[in-house]
Amino acid sequence: MAEEKKHLTKAVKIFMVIFIIITPAVWASLMHLNFEGDLTRIGKISDNLFAPKYYTLDLSPQKSADFEKAEILVIGDSFSINLQWQKELQKNKSATIATITWDDAIKGCVTNEKSAFFFKGSTIILQSVERNFKKNLTTLTSCPNIDLATKPDLIVYEPPIKAKKFFDLDGQFFVGILTIINSNLIKSFDSFYKIYNIYSSAHIVQINDGCNYFSNSHCKYLLTYKNDLKTERFDATPIDKMEKINALLPNKRLIWVIVPNKYSTYVDSKNKEFFDLVHKKRLGPDLFSDFTKNKTSIVDLYQPNDTHLSGTGFTYLGKKIKAFIKE
Predict the structure, then answer these.
(1) For burial by CB atoms within 10 Å, which of 5, 20, 98, 126 has the most?
(2) CA dihedral 94, 295, 287, 231 (to 10 degrees)
């Protein structure tokens, strides 16, 4: 009996030691799963390093205008579905805007006059981020069987950013542990980001004057999307396709809004000539020149922890589109 009690006491002590060691690790990992930015989420990095000092996005729910009544149709990607920049065009009730995704534009054949869902308004804004522009341009020229065309779904924006929990029980333990490891190594060793870039879906670049661009604590580094680096140099071929699409719709005004990659705005200018040509041909605004000129005057033009613009950045984007429409 005494021997059994001895073994039981030993087992309890071992359990307590394991519990004391593991509990803080589990607790810490759960607390590091509240990712606020898409880049910190896919890159497994703490928002303590890359979150902006202030969030400027309007988190109120938004809804597109009715498709049949809209004067402007926006076909866009994740830079449009939060309906942020569109508000600049709607100030003083100056325009009614319907927003749909590229996929829904194709399903509904909204740019094909034979489709029952052909857009009847006067202006179509085609927005795409730089890295996906060629793909989106190609898909727009295709259209399923007209008989199968479906009415596009209008965008309804529900704020994705929730109040930060003390810790998140829905996450994965090892994701939290990896986030802690990545964050501490990046914070402690100036050159660790070179190793991090090998295995991560996000990408870190050390940039000069980074703290003039961003408000986050680790502002000497740019956190960006790895696929931004794979964006190829554009030749004149897309311009030809854009002009042909415009010619198919002579009674509509088509405006091409190509948003530069975050990496392009702060580091790489290989498509500068393409953006220049888009504006010279009157196809759309030259956002690359606008963004690179104002990336210092507009702190957090892009959110430090996200591949998208900040609320201030979206407002600026809306103003540039509005100015182009008036030109």
Answers:
(1) 126
(2) -140
Residue 266, H or E segment: helix 262-266
- Structure tokens that stand for 310 in this block: 């900040």
Return phi, psi of residue 268, to 5°. Answer: -110, 130
How much is the pTM?
0.84
Structure letter (DSSP) for residue 268: -
User: What is the full DSSP assignment across 4-36?
Assistant: HHHHHHHHHHHHHHHHHHHHHHHHHHHHT----
Tracing tokens 């898909």 back to the chain, one arrives at 139
Q: How many CB atoms are located within 10 Å of the residue 253 CB?
A: 13
Q: Tell me the domains of the chain and their CATH numbers.
A: 62-158+230-326 (3.40.50)
The token pair that represents 255 in the structure block: 């405006």
Placement of tokens 């309890």 in the chain: 12
| Distance of alpha carbon 164 from alpha carbon 33, whole angstroms | 10
Q: What amino acid occupies position 235?
A: D
Instruction: Specify whether the CB–CB gap between 26 and 173 falls below 8 A.
Output: yes
Q: What is the CA radius of gyration of the chain?
A: 24
